[in-house]
């Protein structure tokens, strides 16, 4: 095969979580900040926590040094946390992960989500053992669209960019993968008006990876 490793994003790629988070965050925010529109929250999809914090402060018209607002956000995020990730796992995930392993490909996960969310998802969905490398953007200096998270992952796998296929959905994630020098397969999602034009491949679901690889 042309590619020797497949690197997955998590939210919107392995799990259908993005609208779940977005809707619940909006529902709580608008109670306190009624001028915020849900469409204004769309850009946070695929953002790291650091960049998202800046945007949220701007939308709420609160200064960045307002720690009380940070506490409000944390309460909102905690109240909207996914309790059972098996309910949002895309149905084809285990099948495609198993197939990739059978083909001898390396598999990695590179997500902007917090470490505890990634860990909970992997354990609840019983897919941790498929991944040779797991990394959270929470621990990095730079966030997507910066390529750092993918560069580190490729180094861990011992692979060159041209040997890797990155599976993403968001504008920032796709830009990060392209900037890292790898080919990107974009999982189509028309709910958030993502710009997926820079992706080399476009797939309806993860089963499309088979066609890309073969």
TrEMBL record:
Asked if the record carries the keyword Metal-binding, the reply is yes
Give the matching Pfam families: Hydrolase
Name the coenzymes or cofactors required.
Mg(2+)
Gene3D superfamilies xref list = HAD superfamily/HAD-like (3.40.50.1000), Putative phosphatase, domain 2 (1.10.150.240)
Entry's InterPro entries? Beta-PGM-like (IPR051600), HAD-like_sf (IPR036412), HAD-SF_hydro_IA (IPR006439), HAD_sf (IPR023214), PGP-like_dom2 (IPR023198)
Q: Does the keyword Magnesium apply?
A: yes
What is the top-level taxon of the source organism? Bacteria
Q: Which UniProt keywords apply?
A: Magnesium, Metal-binding
**Similarity field:** Belongs to the HAD-like hydrolase superfamily. CbbY/CbbZ/Gph/YieH family.
Name listed for the protein in its UniProt record? HAD family phosphatase
The species this protein was found in: Hominiventricola aquisgranensis
């Amino acid at each position: 095969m042309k590619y020797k490793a497949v690197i997955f994003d998590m939210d919107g790629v392995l799990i259908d979580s993005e609208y779940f988070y977005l809707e619940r965050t909006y529902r709580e925010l608008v109670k306190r900040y009624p001028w915020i529109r849900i469409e204004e929250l769309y850009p946070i999809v695929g953002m790291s926590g650091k960049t998202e914090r800046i945007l949220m402060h701007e939308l709420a018209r609160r200064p960045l040094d307002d720690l009380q607002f940070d506490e409000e956000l944390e309460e909102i995020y905690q109240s909207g946390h996914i309790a059972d990730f098996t309910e949002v796992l895309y149905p084809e995930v285990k099948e495609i992960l198993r197939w990739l392993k059978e083909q001898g490909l390396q598999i990695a996960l590179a997500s902007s989500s917090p470490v505890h969310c990634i860990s909970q998802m992997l354990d609840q969905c019983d897919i941790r053992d498929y991944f040779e490398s797991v990394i959270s953007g929470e621990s990095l200096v730079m966030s997507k669209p910066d390529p750092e998270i993918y560069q580190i992952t490729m180094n861990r796998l011992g692979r060159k960019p041209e040997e890797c296929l990155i599976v993403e959905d968001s504008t920032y994630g796709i830009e990060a993968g392209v900037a890292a020098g790898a080919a990107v397969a974009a999982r189509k999602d028309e709910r958030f008006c993502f710009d997926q034009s820079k992706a080399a491949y476009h797939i309806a679901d993860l089963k499309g990876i088979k066609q890309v690889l073969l």
